[in-house]
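Re-running the complex after MR caught last week's input typo. The corrected sequence lines follow. Everything else is unchanged.
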Amino acid sequence: MAVHSQPARPVMLGQNQYGKAENRVVRVTRDGATHHIKDLNVSVSLSGDMDEVHYSGSNATVLPTDTTKNTVFAFAKEYGIDSAEQFAIHLARHFVTSQESIHRARIRVEEYTWDRIATSEAAAGPAGPDEPRHSFVRSGRETRLTQITYDGSSWEVVSGLKDLVVMNTTDSEFWGYVKDRYTTLPEARDRILATQVSGRWRFNWTGDEQKAPDWEESYEQTRTHLLRAFAETYSLSLQQTLYRMGARIIDHRAEIDEVRFSLPNKHHFLVDLEPFGLTNDNEVYFAADRPYGLIEATVLRDGCEARIPVDLSNL
Amino acid sequence: MAVHSQPARPVMLGQNQYGKAENRVVRVTRDGATHHIKDLNVSVSLSGDMDEVHYSGSNATVLPTDTTKNTVFAFAKEYGIDSAEQFAIHLARHFVTSQESIHRARIRVEEYTWDRIATSEAAAGPAGPDEPRHSFVRSGRETRLTQITYDGSSWEVVSGLKDLVVMNTTDSEFWGYVKDRYTTLPEARDRILATQVSGRWRFNWTGDEQKAPDWEESYEQTRTHLLRAFAETYSLSLQQTLYRMGARIIDHRAEIDEVRFSLPNKHHFLVDLEPFGLTNDNEVYFAADRPYGLIEATVLRDGCEARIPVDLSNL
Amino acid sequence: MAVHSQPARPVMLGQNQYGKAENRVVRVTRDGATHHIKDLNVSVSLSGDMDEVHYSGSNATVLPTDTTKNTVFAFAKEYGIDSAEQFAIHLARHFVTSQESIHRARIRVEEYTWDRIATSEAAAGPAGPDEPRHSFVRSGRETRLTQITYDGSSWEVVSGLKDLVVMNTTDSEFWGYVKDRYTTLPEARDRILATQVSGRWRFNWTGDEQKAPDWEESYEQTRTHLLRAFAETYSLSLQQTLYRMGARIIDHRAEIDEVRFSLPNKHHFLVDLEPFGLTNDNEVYFAADRPYGLIEATVLRDGCEARIPVDLSNL
Amino acid sequence: MAVHSQPARPVMLGQNQYGKAENRVVRVTRDGATHHIKDLNVSVSLSGDMDEVHYSGSNATVLPTDTTKNTVFAFAKEYGIDSAEQFAIHLARHFVTSQESIHRARIRVEEYTWDRIATSEAAAGPAGPDEPRHSFVRSGRETRLTQITYDGSSWEVVSGLKDLVVMNTTDSEFWGYVKDRYTTLPEARDRILATQVSGRWRFNWTGDEQKAPDWEESYEQTRTHLLRAFAETYSLSLQQTLYRMGARIIDHRAEIDEVRFSLPNKHHFLVDLEPFGLTNDNEVYFAADRPYGLIEATVLRDGCEARIPVDLSNL
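Corrected-run output:
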């Protein structure tokens, strides 16, 4: 067998974490003939007393990633999935409290939304108590996200969404900007504003002694405020729209202290139809792929500290 | 300059076509403060008298793909976009009738659906006539598809959809199958049945002298029948479910003569929780990625000929 | 339990097939300390006496897709994987000859190429017989493809590749084309020509009594001819380049009778630098995503019949 | 026109940045008949005096993202592209020094590698000085990355790569780990170890007064050390392999102080062939997609501070 002595050490180990990523768990619950589903993608990441596994390959402090996978599926049975947040809290607490070598757990969850398919009978009126209701169509709306971090004493909960695509077909301008040698863009007094929202928001719930938010209600309300702020802002720049979206969430949702958005400006260019003897009165647009503007910012409740990373993770 | 004589010819040119693919056109129409949008991805493919461009590089019969792109955007202005089908019919007719060298045009369209964002005022009741309605969120439901082919005399219209993900959490069995040396699968009396529907349906409208279907109404109705057949079929195999989906469309939609589906069986495996002292009463599933069953079939109106290709195109 | 009688029948079943798609098999063979790997993605598709499974859900003639998956893995052990083609031939023959209800098998394979990682010792000279050689890096060059179809009497073998991206930075022109009302494109006497080749070629080997080609050698030679034809053609249109690529294969590879290519014209637009007081002498290009020209054609040995479908499958 | 007064302010603006992402620039240089290409994807991100654009939509301090795009293409002409790092340094310096309102610039670059296509003549021997050499095939090996950050006084350069897929078919074990109630994994004394390397390394070059590394040479050497450490480590855990890869880079490349890796454990499961009466002596594997182990860590030169973020950005 081969050598596994340590390399000579002018080299240090820094931050490290490990776990099983993208566990695709579907949980069915039954209320008579009515079924409910939760469809999650759960990623586990653990840190702690892990120097030796890096230096010598000793796994004596390592709970296998396969075990973390098993735990996800077992907990779906034992605790059910009331919300992605609640489920991830169960998991994080378990890993940190049950293994001495694990000092911190970070659980990330993607959630996919499903709608019920109306059956022929149901379509004719409200479904009766005995009618089967076990058929679903994936809604395809945005992916809901949460990330729970627990270090044995306090919690950090950052929820959010990605791939929420929105468009205003008017009430957007862009002018009065800096012009240098490389500026050719004409000013715009009426343009399409479209973006694919990636957002994260941090809750001020940090300890078990506090009452936890209603995670499901909080998500739906936050999403609604975000959409309305987008729709109702007369926009002079995407930065301004971003700020209004964040500020509206901070203003209306007392459980949230910090919001960060990453907003690609999905350019819709007005097509020049003059060569064809046609006028284009903001009617026909080319939806471009790349490059795209990218606007990113954090909006904070006054006095709060920013903790969401500058680069939002894709998972 | 370099040589472009023809290679010695024991070699023939077969079927060929060319055009501009994936023109991303967004069309806005305004009804006072209420805006409407159509968001399409249009691909043009032309065939005809094109031997010389292949043999010698002479472009004398070639309308540039760039021109076909311009035509898509100009027609969005000139004709508007009532439906993807109607828009593609305008385009196909134009290419075949305006250029002698073009004998056949095939136009493919992907359509993305957008929902309105309810603003704060609107949310409190029906939107008044003066309230702005120009804000949209992409619905993320399936992608709608159409393909129009025109050869100067008759039309072929094949519409459909892709990425419609559906699930039944019960009323699915699988047993009584052939067993050979390599069979290990246990029979199932109650399983999840889930698939990502890719479907195409061919209309019997072929000529300008016939009244054309209401394309928008036809799509919504066909989609509804497809979903209900999926939801209402007690399934002994995915093949049976597929057939019912197709048969229900043929039965209810007189304008459609042929349907083809490609249905990946998105396996949801019941997780074995026994090692953890837990029972899994059809509650916790692992959603697998690959491999997947793949079930494909055509369903036809009696006496009609099948024309949709065996392999559905992804675009 | 629910009803599964047949629907009233003005409806017929057309072409149908089923199987397990995307079985990801990696086969290791060992020659002392030197290991070899084959990395395949295998999709099985079977047809035959399958009416009842569609009409009534009876699985009496259905070999489960799970069994076809098991067979792929078992055959990797029993027969090894000399080439994707040879492996798929074993599988297709097995399904058709071992099950009465299966009349046709189509096996598709994607193959991923790996290169050896040179170790420190090996790098200093040729690897000695005892040096370990079990480390690989995925090459990332194109994906190799094959499709084997067997109906119990004759074989059809179509091989090919996808995602082979090539570029000529000169020796490409485009002019002399048709101009209509919607034409704005300026003629080009020196442009970049780039494409992402998707190609398929059909072998004239159809029966066990014929000597089969050397599949590995054939692939490497065909790929080389394709690349050289691309590089050595002074191009007046992408159609001309496509034809030369196909003709060169037909000319040089006697085992191949038909070639079809789907070539997206990956536009590289010369950037207008004049506004910045700079000239752009074919030096700086913008690589565009969409839309793209799409050029598709079949090239045939004289007298042969075209059988590769117009739309190349992505798998 | 609509209102754009500021919202009442219990809300603060935090970190923010903006720019044009994914500018796809291809630069051709010509040395007689021999052409050279650089193929980059450049993303610009600027920060500075940007409060007002968020609060009121005033663009008075905003250089448009469109201008940053133009600058990328103009600089490709004015400065050429010796290396992704050098090109990004030019850009970052320009934005910070030419605009008072811009205090920090971060430039990210993806680079795609192309190989020459050997032409028929060239293949017969070394290419002569007059033979055309303007044909390329994209290599498909990993994507090279760099990120340059400049605040007007010091530089941070983090380079790296993604999508480098590697595999050892032996010399990997995994045993001796923690077992809890949810552990079912059997210990392994000989397994496949495969991963898709995402790595970033930070240079200790921070100021113009220091001699800059040879960026091209540094990349090739670092990649080689990474690959060899992977190949030559007899692995008891992926963490150990990760550490060796990082330590070898720190040991051999004096210009690098910090390395971070994110290594998905691409599981290859030994297929159980016993039900078919076959033994599987580490020959046949199933390559799984999800879930996957995910191992992440930083390796540092002794005494240096870690600055690469825990979550590696995908772009």
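None of the earlier attempt is carried over here. Chain B touches chain C through 97 residues (CB under 8 Å). Confidence is low (pLDDT under 50) at residues 1-5 of chain B.
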